[in-house]
Amino acid sequence: MGELGWCFETDPSFAEELAWMDKFVSTEVEPLDHLVTHPLDLDDPVRQRLIPPLQQRVKERGLWAAHLDQELGGQGYGQLRLALMNEILGRSRCAPTVFGCQAPDSGNAEILALFGSEDIKARYLQPLLDNTVVSAFSMTEPRGGSDPLGFVTAAVPDGDDWVLNGEKWFTSHANFAAFFIVLAVTEPEDPGHGRMSMFVVPSDTPGVEIVRNVGLYGEQAGEGSHSYVRYTDVRIPGDHLLGGRGEGFHVAQTRLGGGRIHHAMRTVGMARRALDAMCERVLSRTTKGSRLADKQLVQAMIADSHVELEQFRLLVLQTAWKIDRYQNYRKVRPDIAAVKIAMPKVLHDIAGRALQLHGSLGASEEMPFGAMVLESYQMGLVDGATELHKMTLARDLLAQHAPTNNLFPTQHLPTLRQAAQDQYHHQLKDLP
Questions:
Q1: In whole angstroms, how far apart are CA 412 and each of 350, 400, 408, 415, 416?
Q2: Is 59 helix (H, G, I), strand (E, B) or coil?
Q3: In terms of C-beta density within 10 A (0-12 exposed, 13-18 middle, 19 or more buried), how is residue 27 classed?
Q4: By C-alpha distance, which of 190, 156, 185 is closest to 168?
Q5: What is the spatial distance between Cα 283 and Cα 351, in angstroms, rounded to a whole number?
């Protein structure tokens, strides 16, 4: 009898790379989180002194921008291997930049590679791959949120150019970016997702204005990196259109499926960091004559956290495996939606328990748990709100089922019992 082909092992050569990454991130990269204010700020002298040498070591190891195909300087790793890598990178704020797979640059690079002309690739993609510039993805709007059908920022043709007008909200890292990738309405008469197109817009183009940089809760006003951007009569060269007219939504979707899996696996790394801290804390502190670790309710918190984390991790890995197997994001859409639904709650609950078990110290700015809890809410918003993914998943699941026209449901026990008796009547008729 042949084997089922169901395996959870990592091939030895890649396991060696993961082991190297684990040690490298722990000893060389995680300390940067306490020294570098923002890893995408190329004007920060501390960042420029510390990060590029580590990036060079990653390149020499052959792990730079591993999400990209080999012709673009990456390894062409599938999503399963990338998921295992991102689990390690998720422990550190600076690690994705050190490994050349930071958001939003990683997704933007995929868009440029797939839909940009050779001139666009030379002008924007190659510097992005080299991390000599950073980029921003400008999609969400103040009024329409993340719903593309509610967008009003528009581009109209004018000779060989396009003229862009409108406002975008929470364009992350726009204050550091050399260029933006902008989703704008170009086909207003189209009733669906074909109304939008995607453009490359250099950040120094006249009419591009950062109204203000928005911070997350707890950050100083004006020092955030999520920008409110206004576009006023911004002229875009015609060859800066990515894909065809009306294909902007399709272009955007090519970057979001894999990006959601990368977010999820980095979340696994962050949640595991919280769980490890939780275990250390309860083994180190005593109250009322015994360790916190000996309290039954504390043990329940540890056990629940472990189970939730392992369940989520397996869901992510299975989804990554399906992406590699089918090479069709649409076919794996329900799985990606399930990952996106589960992600915020797992991080929120584990980080919240870690905060609770650290007491007042856990609630302070001297520990990372408050930021993790806030991050869990962000994970419920980025790449589509959790509620939208619940609707997507439910619709896909319901499409796989059919209603019954019978008086009772198909799982109605008396009906099933009668059917079973009818099926095996001849075998059982002579029994008392």
A1: 40, 20, 6, 6, 6
A2: helix
A3: exposed
A4: 185
A5: 17
User: Looking at the whole model, is its pTM more than 0.85?
Assistant: yes
| Residues contacting residue 374 through CB under 8 Å, at least 6 positions apart | 216, 217, 218
Write out the H or E segment, with its range, that includes residue 323: helix 296-326
Length of the chain: 432
Domains in the chain (CATH in brackets) are 12-116 (1.10.540.10), 135-242 (2.40.110.10), 250-399 (1.20.140.10)
Hey, what are 13's tokens?
A: 């050569």
Tell which residue, 262, 239, 296, has the closest CA to residue 80: 262
Q: Which two tokens stand for residue 262?
A: 């990368």
Strand partners, 74: none
- pLDDT tens-digit profile, the chain (432 residues): 455 667 888 999 999 999 999 999 999 999 999 999 999 999 999 999 999 999 999 999 999 999 888 877 778 888 999 999 999 999 999 999 999 999 899 989 989 998 999 999 999 999 999 999 999 999 999 998 888 889 999 999 999 999 999 999 999 999 999 999 999 999 999 999 999 999 999 999 999 999 999 988 877 776 789 999 999 999 999 999 999 999 999 998 877 666 788 889 999 999 999 999 999 999 999 999 999 999 999 999 999 999 999 999 999 999 999 999 998 888 999 999 999 999 999 999 999 999 999 999 999 999 999 999 999 999 998 888 899 999 999 999 999 999 999 999 999 999 999 999 999 999 998 888
Question: Got the DSSP string for 251-316?
Answer: HHHHHHHHHHHHHHHHHHHHHHHHHHHHHHHHHH-EETTEEGGGSHHHHHHHHHHHHHHHHHHHHH
136 vs 142: CA distance, rounded Å = 17
Q: Is the CB of residue 319 less than 8 Å from the CB of residue 338?
A: yes
